[in-house]
Specification:
The complex is a heterodimer. Chain A is mainly alpha-helical. Chain A has 16 helices and no strands. Chain A has a domain of 246 residues: ABC transporter involved in vitamin B12 uptake, BtuC, CATH 1.10.3470. In chain A, 71% of the residues lie in helices and 0% in strands. In chain A, helix 14 runs antiparallel to helix 15. By secondary structure, chain B is mainly alpha-helical. Chain B has one domain: ABC transporter involved in vitamin B12 uptake, BtuC (Orthogonal Bundle). Chain B has 13 helices and four strands. A two-stranded antiparallel sheet of chain B has the order 1-4. In chain B, strands 2-3 form a two-stranded antiparallel sheet. In chain B, strand 2 and strand 3 form a beta hairpin. In chain B, helix 2 packs parallel to helix 4 and helix 7 packs across helix 9. Classes of the chains: A mainly alpha, B mainly alpha. The interface between A and B is large, with 48 and 50 residues.
């Protein structure tokens, strides 16, 4: 009886996805551990536990809560980037441009907050608009000029990075003494996201704001739009078969551009949710696109391309990323965490294969059971 | 002016090598988004040889050859990740490639940092490799023009690629696997083998492209930065070149010119007087490639079966 229950449990789609994701995580951690062992065997076990523990390494529950808060603050934008990637992916497009749309969001949010001293909600909307614009550009290039979304996304990532560095170097936005932008906290308190008492849960950590619940709400909204609305259905149909969608009267070009715009808006909003908490400033001299958008890809796939799964996956990836910054730097470096997350995405590419193996195992068992049943009935099995 | 020519040729060599690599992979039917990662790993392989191989051992020819072999081998080894995932496990080629790009930069950073930390007893935690002396052996001076042996390598790669793809049986078979693998299989061509060959060749050329890129203008490289999107520019060159070697070479020259402009624009009074921020020049290659792609992608001649895993059972 229990076995039967277990068998039907394993057959569920969601369970298989979860198992596959756990397998990816385990694989990534094991290989990461092996790398640590190669670099320096003595501290390897300690290092991997530090990475996995992150804020639990602090002894007082007060600091644990404070650093849990900071982890969550950085989880929110990561979740938004993951939502951006998975939204586009469900419509059949690989939005690697999420990284650039995130940068566009940072650019707009900070410029509105610091230059125009706008209130926070204006800054968030500006960030979404900027991201949407960049996303729509990718979508338009795809529908009108047949340019691959991945390629245009990458090019726009770099273009946007340099534009942002230029825009945020304006007088009054950039700190004249350092390469960073000036602080939102000291210069435009209105521009900071409101806290609404949530900070009291996290030892009054300053950066904890409504960004955290907002990101979770957006995950639910994305789930509803994709699964429960006609609009979401049309978008997905366009992704499955462009020509069939066109034939059945859907506006296929509009759908593609709209999808990329929504996807871009999600990523842009992610940036606003980070930079408007005052937890960090933009560095105007950076020469590589911030990793947030790319990590969003990891999260989306680790979360089994489900908005709800992405919440957990985003927390996990951010957890080990911050954990990586605590490793003993006499032997190791913080990038060991990015190594682990990139290994996890690489393994995620095999998820289809894992599931295929699981399916075929179950399928074989079913066949065997059927054959047995037939034999018991008295008929000879030929 | 000579400086501009020199950098144009150098960057064009890089783009040509990597784009030709991408061409082999895609012609066999496997999309290779991971070229950027392959370049990083190839660059790491070459840079390690340049750092540790003593110059006294055979001088310039040995150094050049050893560096080339190391980069090519590292690139091929890394490209196996894509080959195995995409060909045997039918994994999504775009995700695999993206993961490879992230993996390469992370792995190279971890490796170089671990090496520097161990060598300095914890004082040097940078991700830099310095190779000033070895780099000098790659260069022959003609007056003001610095001829780099890698320019010749790129030219040879171009000629060989053309001959292999269009004048040899192997090339015909490779192309067949990218256009219609089922048809190729029906006449006895092993599609899996051909695709492995395509991806490995892209690893070889991409790896060499990586070392050429990091030694183009500087004597040390910070591996944290990867190769700054150059692998993707090469992909754009490949698409603009319509997956054909000669056109790829011309496209590489065009893109190389705009990339070079970013390095040397301060030497031209006209450009200097425009007083544009350096960011504009940094953006230029990407903007140009986007424009060019927008204008030319409409009638794309991409291999028909690229990106689709080959399944013997399907029709």
């Amino acid at each position: 009886m229990i076995r039967k229950k277990l068998a039907s449990f394993i057959r569920k789609d969601g369970v298989q996805t979860l198992l596959a994701s756990l397998l990816c995580v385990l694989g990534g951690l094991l290989i990461g551990f092996a790398v640590l062992l190669i670099i320096e065997p003595n501290g390897a076990f300690e290092a991997i536990t530090v990475i996995l523990k992150n804020f639990f390494k602090f002894s007082s529950s007060r600091s644990q809560l404070k650093y849990l808060g900071q982890t969550l603050v950085r989880t929110a934008p990561l979740l938004m980037c993951a939502l951006s990637v998975l939204f586009a992916y469900k419509v059949g497009m690989f939005n690697i441009g999420a990284a650039g749309q995130y940068v566009a969001g940072a650019c707009a949010a900070l410029f509105f907050a610091l230059y125009f001293k706008a209130p926070w909600w204006v800054c968030v909307l500006a960030a979404m608009a900027a991201g949407a614009l960049l996303g729509a550009a990718s979508g338009a290039l795809k529908t009108f000029c047949n340019v691959n979304v991945v390629i245009s996304g990458i090019m726009l990532n770099w273009i946007m990075l340099y534009i942002t560095n230029m825009v945020l170097s304006t007088d009054g936005v950039k700190n004249p003494m350092s390469p960073y932008t000036i602080q939102v906290r000291g210069n435009n308190t209105q521009g900071l996201l409101p806290q609404m008492g949530i900070q009291t849960l996290f030892s009054n950590e300053k950066s904890v704001t409504i960004a955290i619940p907002l990101a979770i709400i957006m995950a639910v909204v994305v789930w509803v739009v994709l699964n429960k609305t006609r609009f979401g259905y049309e978008l997905k149909a366009t992704g499955y078969n462009f020509h069939a969608a066109k034939y059945s009267g859907m506006k296929e070009r509009r759908n593609i551009i709209l999808t990329m715009a929504i996807s871009g808006a999600l990523a842009g909003m992610g940036a606003a949710l980070l930079y408007l908490t005052g937890i960090e400033e933009w560095e105007t001299t950076i020469s590589s696109v911030p990793a947030m958008g790319f990590s969003g890809i990891a999260v989306a796939f680790l979360g089994g391309l489900s908005p709800i799964g992405s919440i957990l996956a985003a927390f996990f990836i951010q957890h080990i990323t911050l954990g990586g910054s605590y490793v003993d730097t006499t032997y190791y470096c913080a990038q060991i965490s990015s190594l682990i997350s990139s290994l996890i995405i690489f393994l995620c590419a095999f998820v289809g294969f894992f599931r295929y193996v699981m399916q075929s195992r179950i399928g074989k068992k079913d066949e065997a059971a059927q054959a047995k049943l037939q034999a018991e009935k008295g008929g000879s099995v030929t | 002016m000579i400086l501009l020519l020199q950098y144009t040729l150098l960057f064009a060599s890089v783009l040509m090598l990597v784009a030709l690599g991408g061409c082999f992979s895609e012609r066999s039917g496997v999309i290779n988004i991971g070229l950027e990662g392959i370049m990083v790993v190839g660059a790491l392989g070459g840079a390690l040889v340049m750092k540790f191989l003593p110059l006294e051992m055979g001088g310039a020819p040995v150094m050049i050859l050893a560096t080339l072999v190391a980069s090519a081998a590292a690139g091929m080894l890394f490209s196996l990740l894509l080959a195995v995932a995409a060909i045997h496990f039918k994994a999504d080629q775009t995700i695999t490639g993206t993961a490879m790009n992230m993996l390469a930069t992370a792995a190279a950073t971890v490796a170089v940092k671990a090496m520097n930390t161990a060598a300095s007893g914890g004082n040097d935690v940078s991700s830099d490799i310095i190779y000033t002396r070895a780099r000098n052996t790659f260069i022959v001076r003609f007056g003001n023009f610095e001829f780099n042996w890698f320019m010749l390598v790129a030219l040879i790669a171009l000629v060989v690629s053309y001959v292999v793809l269009y004048k040899m049986r192997f090339g015909l078979r490779l192309r067949a696997c990218g256009e219609h693998p089922q048809a190729a299989d029906s006449v006895g061509i092993n599609v899996y083998k051909m695709r492995y060959a395509g991806v490995l060749i892209s690893g070889l050329l991409g790896g060499i492209g990586g070392i050429v890129y990091i030694t183009a203008g500087v004597s040390s490289w910070k591996f944290e930065n990867g190769v700054a999107g150059f692998g993707f520019l090469a992909l754009a060159v490949m698409i603009f070149g319509q997956w054909k070697p000669i056109r790829i070479a011309l496209a590489a020259l065009l893109f190389g010119f705009f990339r070079a402009l970013g390095n040397v624009y301060t030497g031209f009074d006209l450009l200097k007087n425009l007083n544009l921020p350096s960011q504009v020049y940094n953006m230029l290659p990407y903007i140009i490639s986007l424009l060019v792609l927008a204008l030319t992608s409409k009638n794309s001649l991409a291999p028909k079966a690229e990106g689709i895993p080959y399944d013997k059972g399907s029709r």
